[in-house]
Amino acid sequence: MRPVIEMLGMRRSLFFLLFSLLILSSCVSDIPKETLVEEIVVAPLPLMEYGIVVDSLKVIRDKVKKNEFLADILLRYGVDYATIDYIARYTRDTFDVRKIRRGNNYAVISTADSAEMALYFAYEINASSYVLYSLFDSVYAIRGEKQITTATDTVHGSIKSSLWNALVDKGSDPNLANEMSEIYAWTIDFFGLQKNDAFKAIYETKHVENIYLGLGRVNAAWFNHKGRDFYAFYFEQNGKGDFFDEEGNSLQRTFLKAPLRYSRISSGFSHSRYHPVLKIRRPHHGVDYAAPKGTPVYTVGDGEVIKKGYQKRGGGNYVKIKHNGTYSTTYMHLSGFAKGLKIGQRVKQGDLIGYVGSTGLSTGPHLDFRFYRNGKAINPLRVESPPSRPVDSINLQEFNAVVRYYKPLLDSIGF
Fold first, then answer.
1. Same domain, 114 and 221
2. Who contacts 409 (Cβ-Cβ below 8 Å, separation ≥6)?
3. Which of 264, 259, 241 is nearest to 402 (CA)?
4. By the 8 A CB rule, do 281 and 272 touch?
5. How far apart are CA 167 and CA 59, in angstroms?
6. How many domains does the chain have?
7. Which site in 34, 39, 109, 328 is 20 to 30 Å from 264, CA atoms measured?
8. pLDDT band at 363 (very low <50, low <70, confident <90, very high)
9. Are residues 135 and 162 in the same domain?
10. Pair 281, 375 in one domain
11. Residue 359 lies in a domain
12. What domain range includes position 216?
């Protein structure tokens, strides 16, 4: 008897549920659809130019022509002499109109009616910076910056003659060669690159209104030199960014591989070399880097300037730096010294110390670079420099996440 009663109860509950749904459906069908779904209207964003709303204004664009000055431009758009004179005299702290250059872009923003009264004048100092002049009511000038967007790009290639040429052949910004040489300055001798050495990079590019501005940061790179792989991953810790290998070891070393960029080795370390000026054989305990006169020369490591002057024995203008109790370096045949450089001065790795020249016994502009250990000359190309501090242990988990993201991307970039 109890199962029968339970079944009747279930049927009664089901009946009431179906009846309720029918009533609800009838009520809903009587409600206009427009009251059920609220219409969402999105207002269009105002059109902005140089930081002002120009929806109801006219924007006239042009370039500064040869021998054209501010007055020539503004008079053409009906701006009176008094306003032009005020701009030239009293807004120099913002921008000196005498620095307006031929070929740069400008815009005149005016009313959109038949009178076309000029309200603003915008001059583009460069691709990202501009100065905006208000030409009505109170005349004033303000500096502004266009929004810079960042994109990610990749490149890969192999060396045929130089890294610079390899990047040009790939249609990439050749300035990436500078960045790569900086990243690997302590681990790869860029004067000793070999044919078929290979490289890859994941890097950022900067743009303004689809105009390419230049390179941003290199996020990850790979270089195969003499059959050995060198990975580099950008990582920030303790407020400073640096490059590390896949194990978290710093690519930075105590000493740079070379004291200058983009030249060639014209003479190596030797115990018996034919001297081109003296016409005799004698030891050459250094490395000669052939480079144009005036090429910057940098110290390969931190240290103190202990000698600076002219070496009568043939070295010409030279600088000697003591790095610690073991190592010192000498830079000879300089055309001049870095401004303010003096004996006793502390220098940091990569600081400018002089310029390539041909002073002393020299047949042409080059740098004679010498490396000493405990006062004895050693081959600079064979110096094994210890690395700087690795990634801190507390940051390893975060660093490893960077490697896990970028390393597969690098490996997937094909040739």
1. no
2. 154, 202, 220
3. 241
4. yes
5. 39
6. 3
7. 328
8. confident
9. no
10. yes
11. yes
12. 149-244
Task: Provide the b/e sequence for 73-88 (b: ≥16 CB within 10 Å).
Answer: bbeeeebeeebbebbe
Token pair of 102 as six digits: 């031929």
Q: Which residues contact 357 (CB under 8 A, 6 or more apart)?
A: 293, 294, 316, 317, 333, 334, 335, 336, 365
**Partner residues linked to 371 by β-bridges:** 329, 378
16 phi, psi to nearest 5 deg: -65, -35
DSSP secondary structure string, 371-404? Answer: EEETTEEE-GGG--PPB-----GGGHHHHHHHHH
In a domain, 390, yes or no: no
**Taking 80 as the threshold, does the pLDDT of residue 199 lie above it?**
yes
Q: Mean pLDDT score of the chain, rounded to an integer?
A: 85
- Give the integer Cα–Cα distance in Å for 290 and 271: 20
Q: pLDDT value at position 30?
A: 53
Which CATH number covers residue 181?
3.10.450.350
Q: What is the pLDDT of residue 26?
A: 52
d(CA 139, CA 97): 15
Q: Does residue 156 sit in the same domain as residue 129?
A: no
Backbone angles phi, psi at 56, to 5 degrees: -105, 15
**Residues belonging to the chain:** 415
Does residue 96 lie within any of the structural domains? yes
Residue 376 is encoded by which pair of tokens? Answer: 């004895």
Residues 290 and 378 reside in one and the same domain: yes
Cα dist from 303 to 58, 117, 121, 289, 308, whole Å: 61, 64, 53, 22, 14
Q: What is the pLDDT of residues 384-407, one digit of tens each?
A: 776 678 999 999 999 999 999 999
Contacts of 289 by beta carbon, 8 Å cutoff, 6+ apart:
191, 258, 259, 260, 263, 264, 265, 266, 356, 366, 367, 369
Task: Note the pLDDT of residue 375.
Answer: 86
- How does strand 264-267 pair with strand 228-237? unpaired
Q: Judge whether residue 102 has pLDDT over 60.
A: yes
| Range 315-319 average pLDDT | 94
Query: Using CA atoms, how far apart are residues 412 and 409, in angstroms rounded to an integer?
Result: 5
Pair (202, 215) in one structural domain: yes
